[in-house]
Amino acid sequence: STTTLARVTQTGEVLRGVVRVLKLSGKLREAYAAREDADKTNERDASELSKVAKLLGEIKLALNGGDFAGIDVIDEQMSFIRECAVGCAREANEALSRGMELKSQSEVGAALQVHYNLNELGKVVDARVAAYAAAAVDAFKEALDVESLGREASGADARGIGPGGHKSNYRASSSAPPSGAEHVWIDTLWRRVDAAMQDAHENAMSVWHLQRVLAKKRDPLTQALFLEEVVGKAASSQALCDRFWAMLAKGVSEHLSRTHAAAGFVSGVLLKGFPRLVGALEECVRACARDADGAKGAPGCTRKDDSTRTQVVRAAEPIAVAYFARSLSRLTEAASNCFAGGRIIDEVSTNRLLSRIRNEIDAVAEYDHLLGTACTNASTALKTLAERAKRAVLRSADAANLTEDATPSQQANAQIAEQLSRVHGLLSRVLPSFAPTPRRALEAGLEHVASSVLSATNPLFEAVGDWCDARFAQMHAASSDENTGGAAIVAVTSTLAHIAESHAALTTSGTIRGPLFSARLALGERILTSFLNHASLVREFAQGGKMRMAKECGDVETAVKSSLRLGGAETEAFKAAKAFKSLVLLPTESIDGSPLLREVPDRVLLHHLYSRAPQDLSTPAKRASLNAAQYASWLTKKASDAEIWRGVKGTLDVYAETHADAKTNNVLILMRRIGERM
Q1: Which residues contact 193 (CB under 8 A, 6 or more apart)?
Q2: Angle CA(411)–CA(412)–CA(418) in degrees, nearest 5?
Q3: Dihedrals φ, ψ of 306, to 5°?
Q4: Of 17, 116, 175, 260, which one has the greatest count of Cβ atoms within 10 A?
Q5: Burial of 90 (0-12, 13-18, 19+ CB in 10 A)
Q6: DSSP assignment of 133-189, as one string?
Q7: Mean pLDDT in each 10-residue stretch from start to end of the chain (678 residues)?
Q8: Which phi-psi region, left, alpha or beta, contains residue 659 (left: φ > 0; alpha: ψ -120 to 50)?
Q9: H helix intervals, 474-595
Q10: Residue 73, Cβ neighbours under 10 Å: how many?
């Protein structure tokens, strides 16, 4: 029957299994006996142990392949098989430990072959890596142990007995050094940390050596690569070292967290010397990378992409958070103290702030990832300084006084602008030496400082700009025989000279491209733009009027450059002023095609061309029922190019409806061409 056939088949399989186990057991006895004989004659061969392990592995597979419970002949062999398995595993572990200690690739390879034959290679390797990582973590834990630290610092042993057998004054329960022994304890702690990192280096290199052998060793029969048998074919060839670093980082982080939470002497030293702690961690990783790189073709001990270093250094995050929190507190306190006296800031207080910023940055300058955080803290302190400065700026009436020498309010504002500009200039010099990330962090704070400099100069410079606007407006109210408003220009140039003399701190300080120079440049550009807007609206020139206009244009430009110390400035506004001076004297028939058309702003050019167009052509100001001064104010403060062209085009369209020469007049044609490109 089917049932009988199934039982016969099952019995046959069991019998074949029994025969195989008995046959393998016989071979095992022969191999074990030969090994014992070799032990007696001191001629032990590693291959004999491997052969024994191979037989044990095959027996284990055979036993797992069937149900042999209750079979006497198998039970009789099990005691011997178990004894051989235990002895073989013990000898293989001893051989592996000996090979790892001697860093002998051949001995380690032979021991790994035994474990492979015993079908326990993965388990043994995992245990070894975990043991090396645990040893490294324990060394670090011991280095931070305050009781052990105290004994070592005082030279006492575990019983409190010092050198020479004398009783040490160290108390085992003490968590802080005795008075006067602080420096000894600190030095001892850092020596212990360095020693712990050396232990970590040695353990990491042991894992690397194990990984290196696994990456080379193959089973002679199956050609299976041992490393792939342990970590899998899809895993990285550095997987074992990666595992070690991950366990080390986790353990170190946990111990640092507990140490910091305890808030004792060790925590304080690590917090104060945090950069040194980071340096010790980084040096451990660098040393491992350097030592492993000497073996060509072997898998590395650390990652080339710097991820290993980042992972290990991140273990110090519990200390890093507290360190940079204190750093930020020191920086913001120094920034706030710059205005400790109220609205006054002086060179001494800004020097203290600069010194503090330098100290905080220098402490971590060797580590780019820490430098970025330090620069972010410095940037926050600069923002605090900038906000305090903006609140301290005085905006009273005397802060905008132009008729007298500098008032107390103006002097206070100038002091703020000068000192903040100095801070900006000194810190800007070191920016090029930073990596991109810390540089961007510090630049953000300097932008706030630059904004505060502009705020401090704003009351005076806005008043100067408004005053100049009002003087330029007088050009249009001048008599017909002096319609360029010569008196107004003289008033502007003389006032600028007075400002330069009365407010020398604002007009002479600051480096090119610094915020104070930028504030003066903005004022200079505003004055020149306002002048050009007004000058372009002058339509009727008296005898010699064009020559006077060109001269006054040059006078304003010279006064702006000399009074505001803008020598060398070649912005669009300055180029436009030079070009307009030449344009005024240029014959009408030479304007089209002149290179000056590229230098003079389109809006200025359009309005100036009204002075060369037919008199019947109405101006945009007249069509809008505005006088020239009002229209110029609108141009300066609100008008967009599109709005200006819309107004000009309206006058041209109206003229074209009633005048036949609108399509042939060169000036009108040029005006349309300029307007259409705006």
Answers
A1: 140, 143, 144, 277, 280
A2: 85
A3: 75, 5
A4: 116
A5: exposed
A6: HHHHHHHHHHHH-HHHHHHHHHT--TTSB-GGGPBPS--TT--SPPTT-HHHHHHHH
A7: 71 62 62 58 56 66 62 63 71 85 89 83 93 97 93 67 49 70 93 96 95 90 89 89 96 94 91 94 94 83 92 93 95 92 86 96 89 95 96 88 87 93 93 92 96 95 94 74 68 93 85 86 95 91 81 94 87 94 92 91 94 92 91 89 94 92 91 91
A8: beta
A9: 486-502, 504-508, 515-536, 545-563, 572-585
A10: 12
**Cβ-contact 214, 227 below 8 angstroms:** yes
Specify the long-range contacts of residues 482-485, CB closer than 8 Å, at least 24 apart.
Answer: 482/542, 483/538, 483/540, 483/541, 483/542, 483/545, 484/535, 484/538, 484/541, 484/545, 484/548, 484/549, 484/552, 485/552
Two structure tokens written together for 277: 């702690």
List the end-to-end C-alpha distance of the chain, in Å, as a whole number. Answer: 104
Cα(239)–Cα(246) distance, rounded to whole angstroms? 10
Please enumerate in sequence order all residues whose Cβ is within 8 A of that of 5, keeping only pairs 6 or more positions apart, or say none: none
Return the number of other C-beta atoms located less than 10 Å from residue 44's C-beta: 15
pLDDT score at 583: 93
Q: Enumerate residues 6+ apart whose C-beta is below 8 A from 503.
A: 406, 410, 414, 460
| Half-sphere exposure at residue 193, Cβ-oriented, CA atoms within 13 angstroms | 26
Widest distance between CA atoms in the chain? 137
- How far is 243 from 177, CA to CA, in rounded Å? 38
C-alpha to C-alpha distance for 305 and 565, rounded to whole angstroms: 51
Its pTM stands at: 0.76
Do residues 52 and 80 touch, judged by C-beta distance below 8 A? no
Beta-bridged to residue 167, according to DSSP, are 161
Residue 218: helix, strand or coil by DSSP?
strand
Cα separation, 456 vs 344, whole angstroms? 12
Residue pair 93/107 in contact (Cβ under 8 Å)? The answer is no
What's the token pair of residue 335?
A: 């920034």
Burial class (CB in 10 A: 0-12, 13-18, 19+), 320: buried
Which tokens in the block code for residue 127? 């245990």
* 218 φ/ψ angles, rounded to the nearest 5 degrees: -125, 150
From CA 37, how far away is CA 43, in angstroms rounded? Answer: 8
> Where on the phi/psi map is residue 119: left (φ > 0), alpha (ψ -120 to 50), or beta?
left
Cα four-point dihedral sign 272, 277, 278, 279: positive
625 burial (CB, 10 Å; 0-12 / 13-18 / 19+) is exposed
Residue partners of 414: CB distance under 8 A and separation at least 6: 406, 456, 460, 503, 505, 506
Cβ(201)–Cβ(289) below 8 Å: no
Q: How far apart are CA 568 and CA 302, in angstroms?
A: 54
Any residues with CB less than 8 A from the CB of 336 and at least 6 apart, and which?
Answer: 384, 388
CA–CA gap between residue 261 and residue 476 (Å, rounded): 77
Please tell me the distance from the alpha carbon of residue 136 to that of residue 254, in angstroms, as a whole number: 13
| CA 110 from centre of chain | 49
Rounded CA gap, 262 and 318, in Å? 12
